[in-house]
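PROTEIN DESIGN WORKSHEET
SECTION A - STRUCTURE
LENGTH: 172
TOKENS:
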């Protein structure tokens, strides 16, 4: 199980709550940027985090690559890869790093799609949702041999019924 959150914009309480809930259950907890917290904050122990366009602490990396649940994962905030205009640059970067999953924030809206064999996922925002779903949320990825099971949850850790997906793998 891989936990993905993003765009907490200064609210450390929800980051800590998600960390506490999943730290002994998940193979990885990931924050896709715009935390607006210090890179040296102890909250990041056990969390992979990247720098967003609202993170002014240059102690955060722009991107991260990690392995969790036998998956190679590319993480970025998204603004440096033009995600407002499509996912091509993001998928190219993931492919360059031999990753099957590309995680990104920035848009504050849930996105789960397979692009050129790569799972591209935006977990929405845990603080400032935008778009069709006005729900503060995060995501869980459960990889299987044939699919990626994606669940979006609200801040009360309840499943969001319209945001449950099983996407077929095309490259495993």
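SECTION B - SEQUENCE
RESIDUE ASSIGNMENT:
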């Amino acid at each position: 199980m891989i936990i993905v959150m993003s765009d907490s914009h200064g609210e450390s309480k929800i980051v800590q709550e998600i960390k506490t809930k999943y730290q002994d259950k998940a193979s990885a907890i990931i924050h896709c940027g715009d935390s607006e917290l210090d890179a040296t904050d102890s909250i990041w122990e056990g969390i992979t985090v990247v720098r967003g366009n609202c993170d002014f602490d240059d102690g955060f990396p722009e991107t991260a690559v990690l392995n969790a649940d036998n998956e190679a994962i590319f993480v970025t905030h998204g603004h440096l890869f033009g995600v407002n205009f499509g996912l091509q640059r993001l998928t190219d970067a993931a492919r360059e790093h031999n990753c099957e999953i590309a995680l990104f924030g920035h848009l504050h809206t849930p996105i789960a799609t397979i692009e050129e064999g790569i799972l591209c996922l935006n977990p929405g925002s845990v603080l400032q949702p935008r778009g069709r779903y006005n729900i503060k949320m995060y995501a869980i990825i459960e990889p299987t041999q044939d699919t990626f099971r994606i669940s979006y949850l609200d801040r009360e850790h309840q499943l969001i019924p319209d945001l449950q997906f099983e996407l077929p793998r095309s490259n495993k």
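SECTION C - NOTES
The domain at 2-168 is CATH 3.60.21.10 (Purple Acid Phosphatase; chain A, domain 2).
The chain has a mean pLDDT of 95.
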